[in-house]
Amino acid sequence: MAAAAAALASSPLVHLTAAARLRLRLPRPRPSVASSRWGCPRGAYLVDWRPLRRCDRMRRFSVDEGGGGGEDGEKRGEEEAAAPVEAKVGAAEELGSERSRSGSFSSSSSPSSATPGVSSEPPLLSFSVDNIDTVKLLELLGPEKVDQADVKAIKEKFFGYTTFWLTREEPFGDLGEGVLFVGNLRGDREEIFGKLQRQLRELTGDKYNLFMVEEPNSEEDDPRGGPRVSFGLLRREVSEPGPTTLWQYVISLLLFLLTVFSCIELGIASKISSLPPDIVSYFTDPNATGPPPDMQLLLPFVESALPVAYGVLAIQLFHEVGHFLAAYPKNVKLGIPFFIPNFTLGTFGSITQFKSILPDRKTMFDVSMAGPLAGAALSFSMFSVGLWLSSNPAGATDLVQVPSNLFQGSLLLGLISRAILGYSALHAATVSIHPLVIAGWCGLTTTAFNMLPVGCLDGGRGLQGAFGKDALFGFGLTTYSLLGLGVLGGPLSLPWGLYVLLCQRTPEKPCLDDVSDVGTWRRGALIASVFLVVLILIPLWDELAEDLGVGLVSSF
């Protein structure tokens, strides 16, 4: 029996089975970043053998680290054959535990063929997350930083008494992946910035982008006028937006189709006076009960709803064309628009991203304001022509009946409607208007919402270009407060505020020249635009509507 046990213990099959069982029980290897106390280079793998201790039922037989082969191996086999099998197993487990603590692990196919220091099994690795250096992990996974050799060459060749006297360096970028050169400007900022850009292209090609920004935490202005400036350096692949992916094209197409559907729904809703009563009561009466009505009853109204849908879509497309026409001469690339459907206005506008770095704040202002200007011009034209047609009895066949209290949704638009249609028309229960009035009203309201000075909206970009990024914080906080209180937009203030918080809250990235002034007339145009936006989005309360004769207040 003892001889059989010794033969079984020295069999290569036992070693193969134990090694196979060991591989199956080890957890999946995980790479981790080596910390300095381990003395391993960055990116190496940390070996942790502690999971081996949990393999209680594993049986492994191995030679000692200093053991030999040949005659020593035969003597060892004879000695082990004389010992009980249980004692041998206990010694093997103790040996495996010691080697798991020391980080070494070796095996041989048989005691007689063992070679000192050589393992016939491939090394088995296991990794632990207990000692991961989080900072170094973020450095590896984060954006690529600038090359310190290039930074040294830039400091030696670019800066000096005649251009920019460097005093210190600071991290630059969202994650500190760049370098901010802080110092004293020794000439005209635009001339020096252009010279530094040319020298950077000659030295590194298209590897980096150089930014001229306001010096952070500066307590005084530049003696030559304007704020003190610093220069930021970022890799081109880090600072420039990425290309449009296939999934973004698919999402853009789906959102456009949903926007078309929401615009048609708006056109159908404008026919509320001629819709089936059960459908109207189901969607307007909060206490309505019973099964939903047959939606196929709305199919005959689709054709008559198309003029309103076409008008709203035309305004939004004209808005986007304005952005692209302003961006093309300035070599600014724009991404595809992501239309946002809305069943009250047809659409909330669209999200259009910059796909290239803007050269200066003037470009940011011009491109951002071109879209709302084009959309507002077409919207106001539709609104005015629609009111004129509504007051002309010859076009009575094209008119639709809407409740008069809808004109209380906007102070400015309600007053214009009151001036053209008259007091008696707006003081009735319903008002006969042309579909162009609805399309123009919705277009002006959507444009006003997008002109609010907050986040990455057109108004926020325009404000950032005209007054700088610091001014956007105060205006944005005020805008959020007015939306939360329902002062702007009425019942649409909450959904619009949530939309901005989820999709458009982040300010635009800085321009290459983020310091140069945009001029007085641009600032004046922005202030006038914000004033008109407020007049459009402020609803009329009952007392004021009664005094102005806008809507039938007693119908509430």
Account of the protein in words:
One of its GO terms (molecular function) is metalloendopeptidase activity. This protein is an alpha+beta fold. It has two domains: 141-239; 246-281 and 293-548, no CATH class. It has helices at residues 2-9, 12-25, 71-82, 85-102, 134-141, 148-157, 189-204, 236-239, 246-269, 277-284, 302-327, 361-390, 411-421, 423-426, 435-450, 458-467, 469-484, 493-504, 520-537, 542-548, and strands at 164-172, 178-185, 208-214, 229-235, 338-342, 346-351, 400-403, 430-433. The termini are far apart.
In summary, what is this structure?
By secondary structure, this protein is an alpha+beta fold.
Overall tally of domains: 2
User: What is the percent of helical residues?
Assistant: 40-55%
Q: Would you tell me the overall average pLDDT?
A: 76
Structural class: alpha+beta
Largest sheet: spatial strand order: 1-2-4-3
CA gyration radius, whole angstroms = 37 Å
Count, helices: 20
Kindly report how far apart the N and C termini lie: 103 Å
Q: How large a portion of the residues is in β-strands, by DSSP E? A: 5-15%
* Biggest beta-sheet profile: 4 strands, antiparallel
What order do the helices and strands follow?
HHHHHHEEHEEHHHHEEHEHHEHHHHHH
* Morphology call: elongated
pLDDT under 50 segments (min length 5)?
1-89, 95-120
Number of strands: 8
